[in-house]
Amino acid sequence: MIPKLKPSLGWRELAAAVRPPRDDDVDRFERGFAREMGQRHAVAFPYGRTGLLLLLEAMGLRDHQVICPAYTCAVVAHAIVLSGNRPVFADCREGEFNMDLERAEAAVTDRTGAILPTSLFGHPVDLDRLAELRARHPHVLVIQDCAHSFAAEWKGRPVQREGDAALFGLNVSKTITSVYGGMVTTDDDDLAERLRRLRDDRLHQATMAKGMRRLLYLLAVYPAFAERLYPLVDALQRRGRLDRFVCYYDDRTIDMPGDHLEAMAPVEARVGLVQVGRYRQVVDRRRRAANSWRSLLDGEEGIILPPDTEGATYSHFSAVVDDRSRWEARARIAGVELGRVIDYVVPELPAYASYRDDVYPVSVHHSRTVVNFPVASGPAGVRWR
Ligand SMILES: *Cc1c(COP(=O)(O)O)cnc(C)c1O
Known about the structure:
- The chain is 39% helix and 13% strand.
- The chain starts with 10 loop residues before the first helix and ends in a 12-residue tail after the last strand.
- By secondary structure, it is α/β, with parallel strands linked by helices.
């Protein structure tokens, strides 16, 4: 069975994880990350959402509106609400996964503090359109949500660099991982300093116990994705027996994990730094896998393949299908697990009922019809027909 997602972890991550800690593990990870992303600063957090929470505060935003996609990960909206701001949701652009920047711009008011363009599934945000929005509304700060895209490029321009700051998620389901963890990058020296100060003020130091938990989790990840064991993992997952490990948020309440203010553990930073060194190779492999799926599925009925955007980094190869269960069953016969990365629309979640101030037809359609094909390895050897 080819799993729907699989971290690209090797022996070097394992060796780094068991190495004795050094005081500067997190600093080194931040510097390596900033260099790879072409930014002046990177600040590490225990989760991407913690980074967003403190970034909004460091930007001085409170009681503001923050525009974000309706079709995105719920934790983004959680962080906006818990920072004391109000999420304003914009639907996807027709025929795309990314937020419609026309709709987003129509939602701008003088209370808008920031916008979170999100290069969903690794498809780069239209930076030309975004630049027009910024020029017309200079009071709106831009936070690039790069949790899926990392360094996706729009016409050769990396998305993370065109904004006031960028946000990354680094759990094991992301393109590269630091076990858990998140990162905020920026070229703004003052913002970086404010954010660092807030982080150091607000977060508790990672305890030894946290380091140990993260190490054990990492050690469990290796066999969990091994081909021979994955059918067992898959069976447990389908019976909901792994929810404690894989459901990393609750869609009924707006909250954060209990340890969201406990700093990134040094072991996570050491693993993350090795992963940064692998980033280009990982993205190349994903692009090749995406191309292979594209040729394999080209011409099939009942499926709309993702836009073939140059510069996409394919955190997921996501397609719109006519009947999701049928496609999942069919893939299963071929030994391929399909995923449903985002099968909800944030403002349609019960917890967000009071934030639902528009309709989101494209997002609703995507939440019901999108499947993602495995891109960690691609369809090599799969007998599809
Ligand atoms: C994963 C993710 C984040 C950050 O998530 P954390 O779990 O808090 O690290 C942010 N935005 C999107 C779109 C994501 O998928």
